[in-house]
Amino acid sequence: MNQSVENRNHEELVERIMKILPEDGVLEAIPGFFLARSSKPMEARAIYNPAFCFVIQGGKQVFLGEEVFRYDPGNYLIYTVDLPLVFKVDDASAEEPYLGFHLNLDPSLVASVMMDAGIESKKSDASVKAISVNAINPDLLNAVIRFVQCLENPNDLKVLAPLIIKEIVYRLLQGGQGTRLSHLMTSAKETQPISQAIGHLRENFDQPLRIENVAREFGMSVSGFHHQFKSVTAMSPLQFQKQIRLQEARRLMLSEDLDAASAGFRVGYEDPSYFSRDYKKVFGEPPLRNIVKLRSNL
């Protein structure tokens, strides 16, 4: 695909999404697939499921612990385990709003495509970092364009979209993402212990974290568990748990109107002052002030 054709395709993609989303907001066109539009910088924090993300217009930063990843229309973001991420749209205006494409990666579909492509998941793949920004190639961009085109026709969305999602996964595999996508794979004989440990921490985030017990449960030494966990998530198990706790506490204060001490206790903090200190370190201000500000922006 030459540059002029690629530019025309990108312009068509922007035009189609502006038509689909005439105002700021998020559209879940089908389960697990989202389009977003924003005419101003914004921020979102959550524990996100594995996904393929693409900026169609504008720019975005993603924070994982102390690491920062930036992507724009020439690049895509992929992450293949559940991660506590901060997304910041930093390039958006009323004239040229941010436009984003987010597709959750279904493990069973990825496994099927890997099998069809003759790619085997290996246990050593768990040492590969689960998040990456890469240049989007013409074949992958073409699949994204055709997927968005399906949104304008209900029959195309029903019949063609599932096939194009398979193609997107295949293009990611062909583009060198096989080892990263293998984080999604588990089987009875050969499991991915770090992916399982992440699931364990998500489910038990409010419980005391005993690294020795978790490492033993997944058949690893404490040092090996620490090393592989940080290789995949860019943070230690304790930092990972803290991110989950604080994001859940923030949600409780916003949606259930809990005070800071009660929210902190619910997510596993025994000392309110310790909770407030951690909260300010992550969110930039004390709990009460932060929640008041968030509510004023709703």
Descriptive account of the structure:
Mean pLDDT is 87; it is low at 187-191. β1 (25-30) and β2 form a beta hairpin. This protein has 298 residues and is α+β, with helices and mostly antiparallel strands. A six-stranded antiparallel β-sheet has the order 1-2-9-4-7-10. Strands 3-8-5-6 form a four-stranded antiparallel β-sheet. α2 crosses α5 and α9 (237-255) packs across α10. The chain contains twelve helices and ten strands.
Report, as a whole number of angstroms, the end-to-end distance. 43 Å
Mean pLDDT: 87
> What's the story with the biggest beta sheet?
6 strands, antiparallel
Number of helices: 12
Give the low-confidence spans. 187-191
Tell me the structural class: alpha+beta
Note the beta-strand portion.
Answer: 15-25%
Order of helices and strands: HEEEEEEEEEHEHHHHHHHHHH
The helical percent reads 40-55%
Sum up the overall morphology in one term. Answer: globular
Radius of gyration: 20 Å
Q: Give the strand tally.
A: 10
Strand order of the largest sheet: 1-2-9-4-7-10
Q: What can be said about this structure in brief?
A:
This protein is 49% helix and 21% strand. It contains twelve helices and ten strands.
Question: Any descriptors?
Answer:
298 residues; alpha+beta; 10 strands
SSE layout:
Elements: H1 3-20, E1 25-30, E2 33-38, E3 42-48, E4 51-57, E5 59-64, E6 67-71, E7 75-79, E8 83-91, E9 98-104, H2 107-116, E10 131-135, H3 138-150, H4 154-159, H5 161-181, H6 193-203, H7 211-217, H8 222-233, H9 237-255, H10 260-266, H11 272-283, H12 287-296
Antiparallel strand pairs: 1-2, 2-9, 3-8, 4-7, 4-9, 5-6, 5-8, 7-10
